[in-house]
Amino acid sequence: MTKLPTPEIRTSAKAVILHDDHILLTRAVWDDQECYFLPGGGQQPGENLGDAVRREVDEETGLTVTVERLLWLREYIGANHDHPVQEANTHRIEAIFLCVPTSDQHQLGGHAQDEVQTGLEWVPLGKVPTFNLLPQAIRQPVASLSEALKATDSYLGDVA
């Protein structure tokens, strides 16, 4: 009997950057589709999640941000979703933080953008559900942030 490889857990930090009832999203082409993501990325060994999100935001957007608080914790276990065979070894944990820009929010342009990234866009919070924001499970929670940033459940679970 063949033993399946054990998935490695990858942790990352994502940013919900708000300004004037808009959110900053990275525009991308991924898996042959035009889509949007929250800025952020992988945590490096020895780096805390707050430092990781600040570094990733700077790299992808050129913005300096202050981390306000943790909004949500998301897991993605590939074996439980659309491509269980191809993603059997995928297990991601994403900490999604509310961030406030401390540098000029109109001066965008990261120095180490992801290879799938094609741009940056300030999107009105109310329009987020109409955008192809991935993962889909965060569209409604993000759009709901315009309701005075009420506290919501922080753990989103294993969602695609």
UniProtKB/TrEMBL annotation:
UniProt xrefs under InterPro entries: NUDIX_hydrolase-like_dom_sf, NUDIX_hydrolase_CS, NUDIX_hydrolase_dom
GO function terms (MF aspect): hydrolase activity
Pfam families, per the entry: NUDIX
PANTHER family in the cross-refs: GDP-MANNOSE MANNOSYL HYDROLASE, MUTT_NUDIX FAMILY PROTEIN
Cofactor: Mg(2+)
Keywords, alphabetical: Hydrolase
Species the sequence originates in: Streptomyces kasugaensis
Protein name: NUDIX domain-containing protein
Transmembrane segments: none
CDD domains reported in the protein's UniProt record: NUDIX_ADPRase
Domain Nudix hydrolase: 8-148
